[in-house]
Amino acid sequence: MTAKCKYLVWLYWRKIRARPILSVLLLLLTVYIIAAASVAVNEGIGFGAACLQLFPSFFGEIGEIGNTNLAVRISIVVGILVSATFVVIVTARITSLLVDTLQRGGTMANKVNFDDHTIVCGWNFQGNHLVEQVLEANKKQHRGIVVVHDSSQRPDIDERAEFIHGDPSQAEILEAAGVQRANSVIVLTDFDKQMNDADAEVLMITLAVESLNRKVHTCVQIRNSANLMHLERAHADEVICLDQIGANVAVASALNHGVCRLLNELLTFNIGSEFYRYDKPLSDSVVKKEFAEVVGMLARQHVILIGIETDYSEDLPSQMFGDVLNLLPEGDRVIVVNPQSPYWLRQGDALFIIAESMPTHI
């Protein structure tokens, strides 16, 4: 219950941060209504008449306050101040929008005030499900999500997700989405275009994202695995080759019945167990312990350790000659799944686990 309350508070606070002007205007309107209600009660008149008595203050006509009732006098003064502030804010906002529109050649652009959020660039039939899963996964981390798509109409997505209309390969659009402060960027392929044309568009978006923020984690879809090398050269962190992964899952499921159902659960958040990457500092109880020993230790906590991410060194290939070393794009980190060679965990390693929720400590 406490976690739910915290989430609701965070959600409302996020909306206030995302729309500060609207929030202030709503607050001023609320105060104005309260002031009008006070006048109505103390004067013994209707609420509408009380609003009309304060209404001229919207136009700056302060006039004389003839009523001697202190509560009424205070309410009228508050109404005057609130309405004057209201007019100032609305005027400033309209002026700002007009200036911004002129600077952009007549195009208005939204901006988000998120930090450590997820940006979805492009759109396809998988978009709705993807947004729902990201929101579900980010609920505990209180992270926002922004969808950037070159469509004038907002996709039918959860209201918690922000939408920015524009070409995601353009720097100003990505900056409006807060790419410099984002945690990750997901680039969706366009199934309405030819295969290589869609992959070329994904490549352009990836280059734009990486040129603005090399630290952001980019996960991109491509339809032709032959274009994988281009995305790797563009420093994409993870590339999903749809032609390969679909065939691989089909083969694995045919040879090992039930694999597809297993993956569906592990890749669906808030249902059963999921994959997690634990990158917090490790406790002394697991540091310098052999991988297989840590597997047993975590299994007693209903946590399954399946792989590690560690620093790459020149002697690592010879140390783990029997394993596949998945070198990350930057070249300084490597991922090893279920090491067969002896490996002792180090402080700074990230652990890939299967669990019902992210452990607080390992």
Brief overview, please?
With 362 residues, the protein is α/β, with parallel strands linked by helices.
Radius of gyration over all CA atoms, rounded: 28 Å
For the largest sheet, list the strands in their spatial order. 3-2-1-4-5-6
Please tally the helical runs, counting DSSP H or I stretches of 4 or more residues.
12
**Whole-number count of domains:** 3
Overall number of strands: 11
Order of helices and strands: HHHHEHEEHEHEHEHHEHEHEEE
Outline, from the CA principal axes? Answer: elongated
Low-confidence stretches: 57-65, 102-109
CATH topology of the largest domain: Rossmann fold
The biggest beta sheet is recorded as: 6 strands, parallel
| CATH architecture heading of the largest domain | 3-Layer(aba) Sandwich
Supply the CATH superfamily name of the largest domain.
Answer: NAD(P)-binding Rossmann-like Domain
Helix content: 40-55%
List keywords for this structure.
alpha/beta; Helix Hairpins; 15% strand; 3 domains; Rossmann fold; 6-stranded parallel sheet; 362 residues
Structure commentary:
It is a single chain. The protein has 362 residues and is α/β, with parallel strands linked by helices. The chain has three domains: 13-103, Helix Hairpins (Orthogonal Bundle); 118-246, Rossmann fold, CATH 3.40.50; 273-355, no CATH class. Helices cover 44% and strands 15% of the residues. The chain has twelve helices and eleven strands. Helix 2 (20-43) crosses helix 3 (47-54) and helix 2 (20-43) packs antiparallel against helix 4. It is elongated and about 90 Å long. The relative contact order is 0.07.
